[in-house]
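Quick one: structure tokens for this chain, please?
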Amino acid sequence: MKRENISPSFAEKKVLVVGVGRSGMGVCAVLRKYGCNVTATDNRKSTELPRETASLEEQGVKLALGGHDVSLLDSKELVVLSPGVPRSLELIQEALKRKIPVLSEIEVASELARSPLVAVTGTNGKSTVVTLLGKIFADAGFETAVAGNIGLPLSAVVEDVPPDGVIIVEVSSFQLESILRFHPRVAVLLNITHDHLDRYDGMDSYAAAKARIFSNLTSSDFAVVNADDPLVMQLVAPSAARRFNFSFRERKVESGAFIRGGVFWLRRSGSESEVIKETEVRLKGPHNAWNILACICASAVMGVTAKQMTGPIARFKGLEHRLEEVAEIDGVSFVNDSKATNVDALKYALLSFSDPVVLVAGGRDKNGDFASLRQLVEERVRELVLIGEAAGKMQAAWPGTPAHVADSMEKAVETAFKVARPRETVLLAPGCASFDMFKDYEDRGNVFKAAVLSLVHGRTAERTP
């Protein structure tokens, strides 16, 4: 049933939804709920989408699968674009020529929100931050939902959270490209580094997409930004929002969070509160220190006290596929950081370890500058095991480090274990997309973990009398 007194701008319209992944499925349900005539299109055929096809047909959604014919735009009043579909697609360019609005799922769904939105974007760290924020807000007594690019579409939860709750939304640059009035109460920009340059024509256009998170903020809203990232500070400068900075350097923070004397501090209205000691934090790496600082700021502006933050931060171990400890075999640790899908994420993964690393890396290159990591790789990596399409490029970028090339993840794990020494870490941090060999980064991480556990079982069998 429709909620009373709600008449969203998209109600009763003729809508084309492009892409029937999770966000496409979610927005189709919302559109139908508000009386829209919906057609959904996808490059995949119905035989590749049996569950989606059955569900959409049951909802009364018309389907046009196996391609994107421009005739689908005839009589349409709105196009909703899934994040995996580029705006350069001929269908989308034709919609823009016809002056048909092209919006993202988060734009449509956010119109229905009763509770404030805390939106988080950045090249790296988004999923960790939104997940930890969800735990902090829930622990502080808020009714909470975590949604967006992390997996659960915003449209699936947006109407379920009451006005005194909070929705934390992970938003990607792809989603931000197609917003119009998307208006979070708190907008968090974690960092901007080279990524997705296979989709964008350069850093300027990629950064501009990220900066759109601030485009509708007013002086009643908050921008939480990384003061240690010059590009982030440049992008937030035009915003009217109240600023909360986070930084490793106290002098950069008038209001916000910083680290001093091995302690995470919150500074607000001229007073300081200790949040948590670094020794109490379970997340590894300098990048996760930034993530925690961002969470402190975003929580504080929504009314969470420093004391209320301490417990959730101390208990948080991190996410699957993010520096995830898998096993230790004969003194060799295996760590899964399959979510390290770009060069910067690979850099911070390496910086998280002091003992030598055997690095498993490679995949589908996103025009990453692997050569920029040459010195770090030579300092931190004793041997390389390379996989996927980027193996040759990586080997050429890091000529000073012994390298092995494997044609499967199973072979890569086997090779890495053979060359690793006790007290070393076999680290999966690909620095690339996964789509040359795997369904996604989660699939890649799961295959890595299965290969490691196979080794565990093998070693156990060897010791059995």
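The two ends are 65 Å apart (CA to CA).
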